[in-house]
């Protein structure tokens, strides 16, 4: 979501935006009609500047009763997490703050429960070929590498990890299965979510074979390239 509309960015670039439905609730209900049980909902405006704005939409979607919602964007404080949970979020996605203040987010994992928090590490390769998480709506790179971040949160009780290869996000180029296989080996007890590049059923099967517990579907669904009912059956 950006500016009240359903959008997709390419490689995390806010200047490369494609707009879709003007009615996000109707789109969510269409997903539910097709059999979806989970919705991944992101406030892209808040991801850059903080201040999650989707509470009314979140509450309305949850009130329908068919979708559990994993949602994030701009989560900066414990109060943000509490408000989103109170509005019905099944899982709150924490990205930038997890990288910048892991001890704080570790306290949230303990307080709200590991099933209530999804740590999102959105990564890209640096000049030395090392994976580094991006922060603040993907506008800056963290000093700490991906492996160190993952190890830190495993020690803090991490259960759900969403990892996006930014170079593949919104590009329909296939998921980075090599990256996910490495993460699976490093964190065998964590439910890993693939994000970025999924375009067809073969990609979903490849993500599952790499050890992913789930995959975020965006552009492929919004543009009708992938049938949701078939994806769920897969």
UniProtKB/TrEMBL annotation:
Ranges that cross the membrane: none
Pfam families registered for this protein in UniProt: His_biosynth
Keyword Metal-binding: no
The UniProt record lists the keyword Nucleotidyltransferase: no
Enzymatic reactions: 1-(5-phospho-beta-D-ribosyl)-5-[(5-phospho-beta-D-ribosylamino)methylideneamino]imidazole-4-carboxamide = 5-[(5-phospho-1-deoxy-D-ribulos-1-ylimino)methylamino]-1-(5-phospho-beta-D-ribosyl)imidazole-4-carboxamide
GO MF annotation list: isomerase activity
EC number in record: 5.3.1.16
Family according to the record: Belongs to the HisA/HisF family.
HAMAP family: HisA
PANTHER family: 1-(5-PHOSPHORIBOSYL)-5-[(5-PHOSPHORIBOSYLAMINO)METHYLIDENEAMINO] IMIDAZOLE-4-CARBOXAMIDE ISOMERASE
Name recorded for this polypeptide: 1-(5-phosphoribosyl)-5-[(5-phosphoribosylamino)methylideneamino] imidazole-4-carboxamide isomerase
